[in-house]
Fold:
Amino acid sequence: MRRKLLVFIGITTAINCFITARDLLRTLFSETLYKKDFTQFYLMGHALRGGANLYAPLHDLATQFDPLLTDWIKVSAYPPIVAVIGLPFAYLPYFWSVIIWMVFELGCLVAAVVLIVRHFGGRLAPTSVLVTVCAFISWHPIFIDLYHGQVMIPILLLLTVVWLALKAGKDVKAGILLGVVISIKLYAWPLVVFLLLKRRWRAPVVAVVVFITATALMIAWVGSATIVDYYFRVGRAVLEEYKFYPLNFSAWCIGLRSFGLVGAIIMSASVLLWSLFLALRCKDFDSAFMIVLAGSTVLQPISWIHYMVTLLPAFCLVAARREFRTSDLVLGLFLIVLILPGFHHIAQNYPAMAPWPPFLFIIGLMCLIVPKAVLESSAVSKLARARETV
Structure:
């Protein structure tokens, strides 16, 4: 039965991958080729190579370096170190740069999948884990990340290695890679807070040192004015542009739209504290790490649906669980129904409702990751306190 199921799932996944590959190839020969997020660090690489301002309007950079890229985002939203990633591509035509980056992303996806499946047993991994991986590969956020030439698939690989390194006690290695992630995307910073609270000092300290080193490198390369400009002008301008955008489901912006600045602070702080509370109650490091990782997807000023590609380890951890309560199964089914339809249609027709499905998905996922033993021990302790009161 297992073999027949996996063959069926494998064939279905192969068909979906073929359709995705076809659609991605079509973008290479259409106008959408010049409207990818990849253009941001491609033009930043050109600016770094040519001595131009990294955060000049992208229209101006495109006019100077590649006129076909003029009709897109106003200014790059990436931290300065990303210009170093874009630098090698500045020596290539844009078309071939897009192809190389797409191949690189696919390589990162394959590597992440191999590492995660191997961790759960390789060929002997539970059927539920293998089915989850196949469904994940066919998931629309993967297509979105590849379509836009984003960085979340490489970040998935980096965070997977961070997780495995922490499990193996290689905190310095984990800290270096976590620092790289934060330098590239200002993403997964709640993991630093979590590790500090767990008193695993080495990894978060190394991560902060890597981030400071990357910033110092860019100060020496392009000057402090560019770095200050990014953190005090560009970041604010990008947030201002997208804070009411219906596809942005960050805790900060949901709170901001509903209750203003106070609401944004309360919403973000609540999600952070809730994720840390759940994580610190878990004796199982895997579950604790995945809870904070899930919370990280909405604890950015701006959150997009393709950020969820970093959650493959969390999905597999839940799928590998041997025992489920009825409430877990109900919650899991609810989350699948919540996230499968996507929310672009909702954004077009009911923009005020659009951010809530992915946001609630993340909150529900954090609760689903919590091991059964944690809830049982909590219930036992409450019962014991009740008896003592009596």
In short: Residues 251-281 form the longest helix (31 residues).
